[in-house]
Amino acid sequence: MSAPLIPISGLAVSNRQEMGKNLAKGGCSSSSCGSSAGPADMDPETWAKVKDHPCYSEEAHHYFARMHVAVSPACNIQCNYCNRKYDCANESRPGVVSERLTPEQAARKVLAVAAEVPQLSVLGIAGPGDAAYDWRKTKATFDLVSQRLPDIKLCLSSNGLALPDHIDEIVAMNIDHVTITINAIDPEIGAQIVPWIFYERKRRTGVEAATILRDRQLQALEMLHERGVLVKVNSVLIPGINDDHLIEVNKAVKARGAFLHNIMPLISDPAHGTHFGLTGQRGPTAAELKKVQDACAGGANLMRHCRQCRADAVGLLGEDRGQDFTLDKLPEEIEDAPEAREAYRAWVAEERKDRQAAAGLAEQAAAAAEAPTLFAVCTRGSGRINLHFGKATEFQIYEADADGIRFVGHRRADNYCLGGYGDAERMDEIIKVLDDVPYVLCQMIGNGPRKRLADAGIEAIDSLGEEYIETAIASILQSRRAHRDQAAQGA
Ligand code: CLF
Ligand code: SF4
Hints:
The protein is α/β, with parallel strands linked by helices. It is about 35% helix and about 15% strand. β6 and β7 (about 200-205) form a beta hairpin.
């Protein structure tokens, strides 16, 4: 029988200085996982910019929400993975945007969400269309929002072609975060992804178009970096086209100051009506994506917690409350609640201290992991195990080895629980996505799914509900080690 699981964070902490040292280490021991970096890994100015941004800080995504508004539908290029009748694949999974908004409608919606969702920290404009090309509407929206909600950070995503024309305004408007999608540095490869661009009143095609686009993207990256704006580069991984090339993209954007590189899998389906969808271009498998990401280790820091969210998403990454805030559902009178956001942020600051201290202790305990081990966690945020297995639509995957415990990605699993009734096919799917994961950590799990998992060699653990993820994993590793030691002594 295994030793009982004792949460590490429940152990007495006798030495606060030791805790402080652990805290300074941050939650991530991997140098390639830059988005996990903490205050000890960057200057205070940069930390102030990223600490509440759910995309730029992996830790912040446990606590903070973003929302997108689709206000700028015009685009100056054509990507082979895009059909604007659906959505912008730069920043969202294909799917019809429920509403395209005027700047005034968008500002009203942001006010309504901010009043209801104290976790909201970022407003992003991420398609469909290009926020820098359709600049008048982007700027009008940001101006309206920043007048009413100065504590909400502004974030925009662009293909980069028009960006160099707006750098001064971006800086003047306090936009600290800009994403540029760069899929290729080599124009021969770029031309296979973007067949045409519209630039200086002319439509241009092929290698000429790809060269202009590449040069403008890199120019924008350099200009923004020089002015202190954090730039994330998104690259869509397209097997057979740019998979071997993305390591060159990673090097090139690192050299020009990119803060993060987010390599996203192509999502391709004939139903989306895109060129790639219609010609049968497939997206990468999870293993192919990981291979490319791992090959980029040591270059520009990688973002691994992107959820490829919709262009009208609302909420924490991985959840989408967009349908709760369509225009017809907004109240007539909207009263802002800045004090609720302030109180939430103060709570997060305290929670963060506790969590990082606990994570530091867990790092020490993690030496109990003799071989790299994966854990699938059911969580609704705050860095805790706080979600019923049946309610999980995705699992956060953590890896533990002798170097520590770290977040390594997420895997989608369609919701197992349908109004209380199990769905055998979805359990098959879950078992497939957790193929190489021996442990599932959740707040609760029913006997049926527990047995199905056990039959597949996966142990479900629900005795550490509400515990911090890292400390729970450390407890399990310690318990397993104690069990092994006991067995060895008895042998
Ligand atoms: Fe939105 Fe993008 Fe800003 Fe985030 S999303 S504009 S940087 S606030 Fe984030 Fe969504 Fe991934 Fe984008 S998870 S698709 S990276
Ligand atoms: Fe579509 Fe965005 Fe590409 Fe424009 S930049 S074609 S909106 S994916």
